[in-house]
Amino acid sequence: MAVSTQQNSLQTISCEEPLREVRIIDQTCLPHQLVYKCLNSLDEACEAITSMRVRGAPLIGITAAFGVYLALRNGDQEWEQACHRLRQTRPTAVNLHWALTRVSKHLAGLPAAEREPAALALARTLHQEDANSCSRIGDHGLRILQDLWEEKQRCRTGDALTSQRLNILTHCNAGWLATAQWGTALAPIYKAHAAGIPVHVWVDETRPRNQGASLTAWELGQQGIPHTLIVDNAGGHLMQHAQVDICLVGSDRTTAQGDVCNKIGTYLKALAAWDNQIPFYAALPVSTIDFSLMDGVREIPIEERAAQEVTHMTGLNALGEQASVLLTVPGTAVSNFGFDVTPARLLTGLITELGVVAASPQGLAELKVPKAKVEP
Ligand code: MRU
């Protein structure tokens, strides 16, 4: 099957000739401003990942690979130390470790003079591979949406508005902003829209960083895809009232038994979907599978982030300037877990670039992915 890798002209990250500058979209400025930022050093690459200027599991991995290139470009031959620093930036998404393991293996046998061009070439390869994978995820997911839409047209239930469109609920941002192109969970939606299926997306706002409100809604708007922003707690109510046909989410780490770790709140949506017999799929490139882990709840490291993300909200004030406001009594105790684990039993399936499989050891075995050891 032909792979169409270009979904839109914007690049989350790029490094073009002749300047070879690593340029990112600074996602902390969206949706109000589309700002590009050049990363000039390992420090800046680390900062971009930690502060979530770039975020989303696949894009974090790609950025880390470019980070090693930047270290070498600046004359730093301590590339193993650079890998070590990049590994510390965010703990949950395994793509970071997957990408750095590939970089390490690639550079290990090379003479010093060859490392910089080799690191750049590999970072570009990872970028292209991710775009291809996400496009294929879109193709496989499209078939699920097509079947669901045909089934829905045959059955015609719900009110007029509900029955005239395919309602998809998504959490966080698993669109092209989180990857090289297309996205994971949003890729099937983009392809369904292009195929003429009347999709409508319920976008969870995704507190505390509001990736749904700030990024997913922006992305969908740019592509002309009908969507409605909802607060994080609205999904269960919508499901009870037949307003959701399918849930599609991404994954930051998927275990060998099919547990899926994604943005905090995903698990609650999966529980509500299960209770309402609504299909719940995770879409992910196989680079997100961590075959060294089985029990996601016990074994996946969950990122804890700053209290300020919960106590404050950032947005535009009445003057159109970016401003942060305090929501709480100063000093309120806060916990801020970034991710949760949805056990495999709650998932209808996993949509990967290699096909759609059951979230189970048998399902994952069908993918026949080489189980290369990923350095922690
Ligand atoms: O904290 P973030 O914004 O990096 O979290 C992103 C997510 O949870 C995505 O759903 C996940 O990385 C899959 S992206 C294709």
Task: Return residue spans where pLDDT drops below 50 for at least 5 consecutive residues.
Answer: none
Strand order of the largest sheet: 6-5-4-7-10-15-16
The small molecules bound here are: 5-S-methyl-1-O-phosphono-5-thio-D-ribulose
Structural class: alpha/beta
Overall pLDDT metric: 95
Order of helices and strands: EEEHHHHHHEHEHEHEEEHEEHHEEEEEH
Assembly state: single chain
Q: Radius of gyration from the CA trace? A: 20 Å
By DSSP, the count of extended strands is 16
> Which percent range fits the helix content?
25-40%
* Beta content: 15-25%
Separate helix tally: 13
- Main beta sheet strand tally, sense and closure: 7 strands, mixed
Shape descriptor reads globular
Distance between the termini: 35 Å
What does this structure look like?
This protein is α/β, with parallel strands linked by helices and 376 residues long. 39% of the residues lie in helices and 17% in strands. It contains 13 helices and 16 strands. The protein has helices at 42-50, 57-73, 79-87, 94-108, 112-155, 160-163, 187-194, 211-222, 235-240, 266-275, 296-299, 308-311, 361-366, and strands at residues 13-14, 22-25, 36-39, 166-170, 199-204, 227-230, 246-249, 253-255, 260-263, 280-283, 289-290, 312-316, 322-326, 339-342, 349-352, 355-357. It has a 7-stranded mixed sheet with strand order 6-5-4-7-10-15-16, sandwiched between helices. It has a 4-stranded mixed sheet with strand order 11-8-9-14, with helices on one face. α7 (187-194) links the parallel β4 and β5 (199-204). α4 (94-108) packs antiparallel against α5 (112-155). The relative contact order is 0.12. The model has no long low-confidence stretch (mean pLDDT 95). The protein binds 5-S-methyl-1-O-phosphono-5-thio-D-ribulose.
